[in-house]
């Protein structure tokens, strides 16, 4: 079928706590599992990278009912897939030219270890500049905050994006624990940030080859959009 044989790089966090070490966080598993399921059904090859390589911890809140859905549960119950999160690649082990798309997953941990990781920025820049797709879900857009293109401009400047909103942080009861307001930071960089009228509903924004989703419920829709673009 058209679109077969593409390769997608998922980006996950290594961070397992907020500023308060007693407040755990990590990868929001369904944001990875939903996209993985969609891409697997399309026949695409998939790999996982993290800012430091090695283990990606899981956000505990995402592993409880009703957030732990069939897709995430399937991943948790699959030792082979769980092993992938114990041995993620480091950025210097990744050849960006091997990938057609990059997908930044979320979970609050990424707010700390995504924005200033030069290795991830270099990978995203290369994939973008060779005509690939750059995508993110929820807090994953923190990985795009400081990514600059070869001409020095920010990748997100002037482009339409979405991601977890400050309203959603407040409603989730975690705003006071955030290291910064990601929505405001994205706007400061000249991105044209938008969000759904209602919080926590699926919302995807596509601006050319930049595909972003607002929250965990957007993961499947983002992956489907990326898959459509990969089909050409």
From TrEMBL:
Keywords: Lyase, Stress response
Gene Ontology cellular-component terms listed: cytoplasm
GO molecular function terms listed in the Swiss-Prot or TrEMBL record: glyoxalase III activity
Pfam families: DJ-1_PfpI
InterPro entries reported for this sequence: Class_I_gatase-like, DJ-1/PfpI, Prot/Nucl_acid_deglycase
Domain (DJ-1/PfpI): residue spans on this chain: 30-227
GO BP term (any one): methylglyoxal catabolic process to D-lactate via S-lactoyl-glutathione
Domain of life: Bacteria
Family, per entry: Belongs to the peptidase C56 family. HSP31-like subfamily.
PANTHER family for the chain: GLUTATHIONE-INDEPENDENT GLYOXALASE HSP31-RELATED, PROTEIN/NUCLEIC ACID DEGLYCASE DJ-1-RELATED
Protein name (record): ThiJ/PfpI domain protein
Organism: Paracoccus denitrificans (strain Pd 1222)
Organism lineage: Bacteria, Pseudomonadati, Pseudomonadota, Alphaproteobacteria, Rhodobacterales
